[in-house]
Amino acid sequence: MLIRPMRPDDFDAVWPVLRDIARAGETYALDPGLDRAAGWALWGEAPRATFVAERDGAILGSYYIKPNAAGPGDHVCNAGYIVAPAARGQGVAAALCAHSLAEAARMGFAAMQFNMVVASNQVAVRLWRRHGFLIVGTLPGAYRHATLGLVDCHVMYRTLHDQAG
């Protein structure tokens, strides 16, 4: 698997994954009616960097890195990850997470924070914990899950000092 910076033409493969995740309403706080232009702005324009994972020319997943806040908070980054359905369970998200931690440290960020990890998404919670993230807060009923109703969200955080190269 190769993880590399996303090119504009890669969004043709990234968009259906992002669109379907938004529509599902189970893991991301995104408008279920997210259109392609807004998806590109979110995934391709707003981040400081966006990467894709590919194997044999097929896009398996993607992630972005951006400052979590402005000014005095811009030393903490935020990242978002998506994995194509056919690539799930193959270690793609773990590889993307490891890559993003190293890349964020290389970019000079001191920490990474996830603002809304949907608590019912136990696969993600376990993965982020394996990568050193701590649950630093829980927001009761902060997510309107499409099938479960109101569910909690975790704020997860880790420093990047051990990632500096």
TrEMBL record:
A Pfam family that the UniProt record links to this protein: Acetyltransf_1
InterPro entries: Acyl_CoA_acyltransferase (IPR016181), GNAT_dom (IPR000182), Mito_N-acetyltransferase (IPR052742)
N-acetyltransferase domain boundaries: 1-161
Alphabetized UniProt keyword annotations: Transferase
Keyword Transferase set for record: yes
Record carries keyword Transferase: yes
MF (Gene Ontology): acyltransferase activity, transferring groups other than amino-acyl groups
Highest taxon, organism lineage: Bacteria
PROSITE patterns assigned to the protein according to its UniProt record, in alphabetical order: GNAT (PS51186)
Protein name per the record: GNAT family N-acetyltransferase
Provenance organism: Gluconacetobacter takamatsuzukensis
Organism phylogeny: Bacteria, Pseudomonadati, Pseudomonadota, Alphaproteobacteria, Acetobacterales
